[in-house]
Design brief:
The complex is a heterodimer of chains A (about 350) and B (about 325). Chain A has about 350 residues and is of the alpha/beta class. Helix content of chain A is about 30%, strand content about 25%. Helices cover about 75% and strands about 0% of the residues of chain B. In chain B, a hairpin with a 4-residue loop joins strand 1 and strand 2. The chains are: A alpha/beta (about 350), B mainly alpha (about 325). Chain B: InterPro entries: BPD_transp_1_N, MetI-like, MetI-like_sf.
Chain lengths: ~350, ~325
């Protein structure tokens, strides 16, 4: 559907490993995805599936002792040239120009993601001055402007306040303002609403949709909340144990999943009216395996209802086309006949 | 900020008053008084009559009730009269005027030396945690923390004497000892003092460096550091601006204790190094129960502590806006 748009970011078989004294943790072990310009892509998966590490790999801010072991991350620069981010020095000029300037990131915890000892304005002005040659007075003006854009009340006062003086929702607005201050072409959002209460969450999501349309930027939205995915994204990538197990347009994910893990995720979340229809909630069997002892074959076989006991245990399935713009990493993706959910979660418009 | 400073100044006055009471009482705590220890030091065989003792007590004002003694000491103190040292038979003010400037001339540069060296080392150790340099610095830090300063002083004197053929103790080298003031003499004094500062400061450096390292390690993994990194800031610039700024608060809050710790910690070291600061004076005064001298020194040192704490509080308010005024 979006093939007329340029590819903005293409991750190909990314592997990010942590070398610890206890052994190697393969946090990301074969992640591939594409984001087109202006597209909103969701990444879902349980805690520890490698979502956050993948995001940090893009910006090259993987914390020690994590290292990118293999794969490429190609990003279309402002001038149209495709640059491989994995080849850059993680503290070099090139990647630092991209960070904040072309790819911005907002984090999960608005409480701790802002420096407690600097004013909101100080932190946003700094971002602007890092990427744009403007005098301090102009940067301050731009900061008030961007704060107003994220619907911050009294932006001309908030600019001089400290994070502890404003609410969690306002802090996340300030984070978004900081991220958008340099008009990035890709916004990475790492569970930006998880730490907020439901009302504030809805406001922030609506704000992000509005701003995405206004700025025309692509969003890579990471969450473990499928409801948020349904609201926010047009394309979804499902991750399990560091691998992309399925990727498809959002409707296909909900109506016609092809990977048993996606299927299990969909049926493990409660929906309105489920009880009266006589349906029970099905939890995913078992727990995420120990990262030091990855299962052989398909990493999901230990929890999969369709485990055949042979091929699944011995052979790692490849991520392959199973439909238009739809990939799955399962030997039996075409033949399982998995059912989607009857109605996708309510979509909230901006 | 101004209001806060004024309010804190008011509290300082109360603190100083309480300290004056404590300083005075503590000096009275050991059994006996100056007259006892004075008589004990008189050459044996002389028989001192009871009348003579009573007369001595009356002469020094020691026969009166404690409250009266305290009150007289305090009112005199407020008029700048700190009393007379029984032992030296000179005014306390004189004795202090002689030694306090030198004490400050050693402790203030020592404090500056401690912070100037310990904070950068702590930052480096934290940022390069578990590197070879971090291990070496931590190892050296523990050694200097564990070895008492006066022992380091003794070792320095030995090394200075054995290998460089010169004495380390004292303020001046022998050739300048009695010479009139000259540029050479001043340089010589600074040279001798820098060694004293180095020796007295080592344990302070070791301790402060550990605090700085530990604090910064906690902060380096905070989410706001990642935010700054994702903004495109260079690594060292962001470390200095964000986590160091937060981590330095607890270090600043130690300024209040570092001043008196240096001043009292220098007592034995200064005695070993034969430097005429207030340290050896206080040690002597306490040993011989020279109460006005001892109480006055303790009082003056306490006031310095209170001032140090005041400075550190003001710095904290500047460093961490979460501290409400």
């Amino acid at each position: 559907m979006n093939h007329d748009r340029h590819i903005l970011l293409e991750i190909d078989e990314l592997k990010t490993h942590y070398h610890t004294p206890q052994g190697v943790v393969k946090a990301v072990e074969g992640a591939s995805l594409k984001i087109r310009e202006g597209q909103a892509v969701g990444v879902v998966g349980e805690s520890g599936c490698g979502k956050s590490v993948m995001l940090r790999s893009i910006l090259r801010i993987v914390p020690q002792p994590g290292k990118i072991a293999a794969g490429t991350i190609r990003f279309r620069r402002k001038n149209g040239e495709m640059a491989d981010l994995t080849a850059m020095d993680s503290n070099g000029r090139a990647i630092r120009d991209i960070r904040g300037g072309e790819i911005a990131m907002i984090f999960q915890e608005p409480m701790s993601s802002l420096s407690p000892v600097h004013t909101i304005g100080d932190q946003i002005v700094e971002a602007i001055q890092l990427h744009k040659r403007v005098p301090a007075a102009k940067a301050r003006e731009m900061t008030i402007e961007i704060l107003a854009k994220v619907a911050m009340p009294r932006p001309d006062q908030i600019i001089d306040q400290y994070p502890h003086e404003i609410s969690g929702g306002m802090r996340q607005r300030a984070m978004i303002a900081m991220a958008l201050s340099c008009e990035p072409r890709l916004l990475i959002a790492d569970e930006p609403t998880t730490a907020l209460d439901v009302t504030t969450q809805a406001q922030i999501l609506a704000l992000m949709r509005r701003l995405q349309a206004e700025f025309g930027m692509a969003i890579l939205f990471v969450t473990h909340d499928l409801g948020v995915v349904a609201q926010m994204t047009e394309y979804v990538v499902v991750m399990y144990m560091g691998q992309v197990v399925e990727s498809a347009p959002v409707d296909d994910i909900f109506f016609a999943p092809r990977h048993p893990y996606t299927h299990a995720l969909l049926h493990s979340i409660p929906r309105l009216g489920q009880r009266s229809a006589g349906q029970r909630l099905e939890p995913i069997r078992g727990t995420v395996p120990d990262p030091f002892a990855r299962p052989s074959g398909c990493p999901f076989h230990t929890r999969c209802r369709f485990n055949d006991g042979q091929r699944c245990v011995s052979e790692l399935p490849a991520l392959r086309e199973v439909g238009p713009d739809h990939q799955a990493r399962c030997h039996y993706a075409e033949t399982l006949g998995l059912s989607g959910v009857a109605a996708p979660l309510e979509r909230v418009s901006a | 900020m101004m209001n806060y400073a004024i309010r804190r100044s008011g509290q300082m006055l109360v603190t100083v008053f309480v300290i004056s009471v404590i300083a005075f009482v503590v000096i009275q705590l050991p059994p006996g008084d100056f007259v006892n220890s004075y008589l004990a030091t008189l050459s044996g065989g002389n028989i001192v009559t009871q009348d003579a003792i009573v007369a001595l007590r009356a002469q020094f004002g020691l026969d009166e009730n404690l409250v009266v003694q305290y009150w007289r000491w305090l009112t005199n103190l407020l008029q700048g009269n700190m009393g007379i040292s029984f032992q030296y038979q000179r005014t306390v003010l004189d004795l202090l005027a002689e030694r306090l400037p030198l004490t400050l001339a050693i402790t203030i540069p020592t404090a500056i030396f401690v912070y100037m060296v310990a904070i950068p080392i702590g930052i480096y150790s934290a940022v390069r945690q578990y590197s070879l340099v971090d291990y070496l610095l931590s190892f050296a830090g523990f050694i200097f923390l564990a070895v008492p300063n006066f022992l380091i002083a003794i070792i320095a004197i030995y090394i200075g004497y054995r290998y460089f053929g010169g004495g380390v103790g004292g303020l001046f080298s022998p050739e300048y000892e009695l010479a009139p003031w000259s540029i050479g003499k001043v340089l010589n004094m600074m040279q001798n003092m820098s060694l004293a500062i180095l020796i007295i400061g080592t344990s302070g450096v070791a301790a402060t460096m550990r605090v700085m390292r530990g604090m910064l390690l906690d902060e380096l993994s905070q989410a706001y550091v990642e935010t700054a990194r994702a903004k495109g800031l260079g690594e060292w610039r962001l470390i200095m601006k964000y986590p160091v700024r937060v981590a330095v608060s607890p270090v600043l809050s130690t300024i209040g204790f570092v001043l008196p710790a240096l001043i009292s910690g220098t007592e034995i070291t200064a005695t070993v190094l034969n430097i005429p600061t207030t340290g050896p004076l206080l040690l002597n005064a306490v040993r011989s129960q020279d109460m006005f001298l001892a109480a006055s020194i303790i009082f003056v040192l306490s006031i310095l502590t209170v001032i140090g704490t005041f400075i550190s509080d003001l710095l904290l308010v500047w460093a961490d806006p979460r501290i409400k005024l």
